[in-house]
Amino acid sequence: MATKRTGYSDNQHSILYGETRGFCPLCMQPIIFRKQGSNNLNKGYEIAHIYPLNPTSAQTKALVKRVPPPEINALENVIALCPTCHTKFDKDFLVEEMDKLRLIKDGFLADAKARETASQYKIQEEIYAILDHIAELSVDVNEIPPIRFDISTVDKKLRVGMSPLQKHEIKVNAVTFYVPIRDYIRELEQNDQLAIRILQSQINTYYLEMQKQHPDNKDAVFSFVAEWISNRTRRTLLASRVLTSFFVQNCEVFDVSAE
Ligand SMILES: [Zn+2]
Q1: What are the b/e assignments for 13-41, b being 16+ CB within 10 Å?
Q2: What is the Å distance from ligand 1's center to 211 Cα?
């Protein structure tokens, strides 16, 4: 017997629309749009099942190595697509396309979870001064002093689960900015040592929470920490990534893997 399609509530539509940020995740066309000369907004998306609602016999064969979701109509198994992509996805069903859509949806779910976690974690206000200080740093690359700390510890900390590009960003940031940031934080510490220690422990705690959510993806952990700092403070992501790099270099919590 065919499984019934569920009608989705307005709130569920809001979630599914919101996670796409307004664009069909396959073709990137806007999914709510205004026709030329009209004041009305048109809804240009449909709710598509990722794992098919009622697989045909050919699809069932193709799906043999894929685990069906616990609930076929759950929000975790549906995604907003423009009508063209939806029709193409269902009609020319390919397991590879389904896997691609699954990856996109898992990204949406991870983002939503990270944002929800971010809203629960507070951050000391000293961070504003630090980020503003970073935003104003101008370092002449020709005048960077010889490294005054052991850069190889960054390598050890990041050995597993981080891409070469991400490692590169952190290393360059650490080499370029470590000393001025450390000195500035020391200055702040003279005013209120406890506040800085609380701040460090807040960032460590958030890092650990992200590590728990993404145990095999240190790139994602790094990005989510930097985004949290940026969103919480409304300071630039650039400055937040520099500060996150500083903490990677500075804190024991960014686990040095055992030799
Ligand atoms: Zn589309």
Answers
A1: eeebbebbeeebbbeeeebeeeeeeeeee
A2: 33
